[in-house]
Every structure is written in C-alpha cells, then in structure tokens.
Amino acid sequence: MLKIPYFSFLKLDFEIYHLNTSKNFYGFFILYFSFFIFKLIYKFSKSNKKIYKK
Predict the structure, then answer these.
(1) Which residues are CB-contacts of 16 (< 8 A; sequence separation ≥ 6)?
(2) Are the C-beta atoms of 26 and 20 separated by less than 8 Å?
(3) What is the tally of structural domains in the chain?
(4) With contact defined as beta carbons under 8 Å apart, do 12 and 30 qualify?
(5) Cβ pair 2, 37 in contact under 8 A
(6) Tell me, what's the pLDDT at 33?
(7) How many CB atoms lie within 10 A of CB 9?
(8) Which domain holds residue 15?
C-alpha cells in the first residue's frame, strides 16, 4: 500500500530533478529529501508489520 504513493512521488521527484539540472544543489537537496522520506516510510512499514503480526 505504501509502495505505490512512494514510487509516484519518486517519479515526480525525478522529473523535478531533470528540470533543475542547472541547479545542481537544488537537485541534490531533492534527492536527499526523497531518500530521507524513503527511510521514514521503510521504518514505518517495518513497525506496522510487527504490529500486524500480533
């Protein structure tokens, strides 16, 4: 369930990164931010699996 919205966000993120190729710092910031969100989603899904296994 969490995979679909993340991948759609990543797709949008990738388009923004390509639009701002001249602004390398901004593109790097977007990629770092998306990675941070991915880590949060991964931790959240892991904790959810532990709860649902009960």
Answers:
(1) 27, 30
(2) yes
(3) 1
(4) no
(5) no
(6) 87
(7) 14
(8) 3-52
Q: Tokens 């390509």 belong to which residue?
A: 18
Provide the residue-wise pLDDT of the chain in tens; the chain has 54 residues.
455 555 666 666 666 666 655 566 666 777 888 888 888 888 888 877 766 665
Which pLDDT score, from 0 to 100, does residue 14 have? 67
Among left, alpha and beta (phi > 0; psi -120 to 50; other), residue 13 is alpha
Place of tokens 């602004």: 23
Q: Which amino acid is at 15?
A: E
Mapping DSSP to helix (H, G, I), strand (E, B) and coil, where does residue 21 land?
coil
Contact (CB, 8 A) for 17 and 31: yes
17 touches 30 (CB < 8 A): yes
